[in-house]
Amino acid sequence: MTTKRVHGPCAGRCSAVAHGGLVYAVATDPDSAPTIEGQTRNTLAALERFLIEAGSGKTGLLQATVYLTDMRNKKAMDAIWCEWIGDRDNWPQRACVGADLEPTDLIEIVVTAKAL
After folding, report:
1. Domain 3-114, CATH among 3.40.50.300, 3.30.450.20, 3.40.50.720, 3.30.1330.40
2. What is the pLDDT of residues 13-57, one digit of tens each?
3. CA 61, 107, 102, 105: dihedral to nearest 10 degrees?
């Protein structure tokens, strides 16, 4: 059984890893947009690229955890998430929690997906 690693910009960790029919991925906004709307869009775009490179995509999502530095941003994030995720047949199990993140990050998303 092989393991595929999608290396990202941060030392010591991958943006995605595929193994055993599953893909594990994480993303933040590479551009550090100033708003939660901008960061959510950029993070989801990066996440989708990582998933595709690792052999999956948003239709393969099984589980997602969204980390927000400010839970007051959840409603704005949800609107963009729902637009991005599309049809209810694509909806993963998802949790959203408040967390301390890097100073420029408003959002971080960690997912598990099936290989497509």
Report:
1. 3.30.1330.40
2. 999 999 999 999 999 999 999 999 999 999 999 999 999 999 999
3. 130
